[in-house]
Specification:
Shape of chain B: elongated
Shape of chain A: globular
CATH superfamily of one domain in chain B: P-loop containing nucleotide triphosphate hydrolases
CATH architecture of one domain in chain A: Orthogonal Bundle
Strand content of chain A: under 5%
Number of helices of chain A: 11
Helix content of chain B: 25-40%
Largest sheet of chain B: 6 strands, mixed
Distance between the termini of chain A: 36 Å
Distance between the termini of chain B: 38 Å
Largest sheet of chain A: none
Number of helices of chain B: 9
Oligomer: heterotrimer
Radius of gyration of chain B: 24 Å
Chains: A mainly alpha, B alpha+beta, C mainly alpha
CATH architecture of one domain in chain B: 3-Layer(aba) Sandwich
Number of strands of chain A: 0
Order of helices and strands of chain B: EEEHEEEHHHEHEHEEHHEEEEEEEEEEH
Strand content of chain B: 25-35%
CATH superfamily of one domain in chain A: MetI-like
CATH topology of one domain in chain A: MetI-like fold
Structural class of chain B: alpha+beta
Largest interface: A-C, 88 and 89 residues
Structural class of chain A: mainly alpha
Order of helices and strands of chain A: HHHHHHHHHHH
Amino acid sequence: MKKFNKIFTVLVYIFLYAPILVLIVFSFNSTKSTIDFTGFTLKWYRELFTRPDLLKLLMNTLIIAVIASVVSTVLGTMAAVGISSMKRRSRSMVLTATNIPMTNPDIVTGVSLALLFVFAGTFLRINDVFGFWTLLIAHITFCLPYVILSVLPKIKQMDKNLTDAALDLGCTPTQSFFKIMLPEILPGIISGATMAFTLSLDDFVISYFVYGASFSTLPIEIYSYTKKPMPPTVFVLFTIMFTVIFLLLFFMNMAEYKKSKKKKIDL
Amino acid sequence: MSDVIIQLENISVAFGGTDILKNLNLTIKDKEFVTFLGPSGCGKTTTLRIIGGFVRPDSGAVYFDGYNINDTPPYKRQVNTVFQRYALFPHLNVFENIAFGLRIKKLPEKEIKEKVMQMIERVNLKGFANRKTNNLSGGQQQRVAIARALINNPRVLLLDEPLGALDMKLRKDMQMELKKIQQESNITFIYVTHDQEEALSMSDRVVVMDNGIIQQIGTPQDIYNEPSNAFVADFIGESNILDGIMIEDYMVSIFGQKYKCLDKGFDRYEPVDVVIRPEDIQILDPDKSSLSGVITNVTFKGVHYEIIVDIKGFKWMIQSTEFHRVGEWIGIALLPDLIHVMKKSEYSGQFGDYSSYSEEYDALSDDSEESSDEFSEQEEEL
Amino acid sequence: MRTKTKFLAVPYLLWMTIFIIAPLLFVAYFAFTDSAGNFSFQNIIKLGDYIPVFITSIWLGAVAAFLCLIIAYPVAYFIANTSEKWQKFLIMLIMLPMCMSFLLRTIAWVSLLSDNGIINNTLTAIGLSPLPLIRNNGAVILGMVYNYLPFMIMPLYTVLVKMDSSVINAARDLGANSFQVFRRVILPMSLPGIVTGITMVFVPAVSTFYISRKLGNTSLTMIGDVIESQFKTAYNPNLGAAMSLGLMVLIFICMGIMNRFSKDEEDILL
């Protein structure tokens, strides 16, 4: 049974990584074909830097992801602190509402926001409402619940007396938040922010309904290749991003593992 | 009244529709060791948190040194707290935990270092300064918590079940040490516990609470020897509580028998509760006593035997150094100075008979009390 | 003190009201009006024409969710029972694809599955006849399973790794064999993870439009396709909103049914 599980798991990992491997391999392909590998080349890597359009989209995507994750982390952390001190009934009401964007299909979230933006556009007499701001607002909106739901358990786990102890020892409520609560819930905040960042980076469905001609992102561009042939430079971009994220995750894991190991030895 | 440091006046608190404290009045003297004693949910922790500034009373006033401090936030009070389960800051080491209050006051680094090292020595934690707090034993964490509070030179130290998480042996040692620290530092200690033994052995005065009401205030001796009602008598130590009728001053009738006692000031023929401590009862030959019955249970307790005897349907507990067998027929003697008469109260009839006596039951209720205590007090806050 | 911290949630509550609650009200408003803005049931009635679309979507989503469960369980179980070091690494590898463009990864499947794609080319090269791997429902389900499998593995892993091994030992001690231990102890205890996993796979699968377009038969229409085209090409937002409302109701019902299987789900989620 154990052996079966092991082999099965290996097969599943191959299944998960086969398409990724295909994309990486074809970023080195000498022709534009995504089926026949005709020879190794780095020319697409060079070409990427001569394609300001792709780099600009990448930049846009990163700008949105950074701002959306920062804003949603700040707002979400504040909200989590606030929610945790609410009375039970109002707390569960707010949490139910918070769950809506998580359980609603992305397409519904996207469509509903699009309807709101169109309305706001006509109401405020803005000609082309869709663009940077609508994208940013949408991204913050779908990131917020993830931040809140990763910070909230940390607040719950925290000994309620800790903040009281800080007040007792002379901290003002603000000092007590920054000196005591923040370090305690930091892991939750970081994981929330990371989640928000990656979700925003890769979001296509919601962005697709709220982007405008003035401001677009990489996933939307990739979608537009449904009709035109995909340039291998996109695969190059994918390969670079994959490598960066892989290394980032890998070293984060290593650091965490070393830390937890050290803790055990201390005990 | 210059030696009064804290005064609580007509304090009432309710959380979510339930009354936690009902019109509480209390005066605490400077340099006194006062203990709030009571079962879970009696309001003792809430009272402490009112003094600490973490709970605002719905009505009533808190005075500190004669000044009303109702609106003074915790960080401006000359009061420090040792919290339940210590509430040490997990991201700071022992040194930084203790230095916390001084750093907030922005004392010069040199002074902080000096004071903290002094304090570390005082609580016997030398060599632990750079340890993470979660690697310490319960007793050590306890010392850090005390040091962290004491270093701020509070006028009053509040201790919320500080020994609750320690094992029996360590508890006894820490009791002695806490008492010593209080005497050395020469400040007021307000201590919250549900452990009556702890309360009796450490305090100058004990405040027994139940249901948000103070049942009795007094020295440990007063509380033990002259409980004011059936609740106090039962909560502090073991007691047999019987229905009696006060015939006249210095004369009470139990089971139709008249006994001499030292109590007076009741109406003639007033129904009363009579307390007789198990260790005060003498065992006699059945024919030498008007009260006699059969032994139903004997438990060896180390220093003495605990004997349950059924006399006219009422099960008495007797503590005796002599061994008696189950089934033996014995008589008992009640001496005047060992009989204590109390007014009838809402608690009358709830306590005092050992008919449902079982040791496991006792142990169980003790444990659950501790854990549910925390829980209920936490819930109160929500 | 505590009463004041409550107000920290106010900016979020405002945000939520404007950008979560209000947009949903707009969906409802559009669903019950015609293009001129008059109250009308015409869009809701028109949903009747799309019942086959709903059925196809639910069927494909349900099959994908079920397959994900069957595949994810042994994987999650295996990961949960390896050493801590391996667990971290393997979970990282599960999460990694979730961070990468799902559009591109789906396109990669196109080049793998096409009639003269990598797999079929390999098959012909070794003398076998090529298989019809793409432009059918099988390919759509494969795309769904591929994309959403991590969403099933993660919650299952979370419940399995938290499971107290002494409980399993206790079951053994009481005479249960391996199968009985699984059937009577491990499986019921992992139910909350299963429910979360199925929801997390089913919801995006049932509402997808990209996967069906890239891998499915041209005649295949899913709910997502209809909504997308109403907003992007046919421009009938009223019908699109009605479809969205239908989708929400559908998912609400499915979740309700799922939740009946596990009442403790919330405890795990929070």
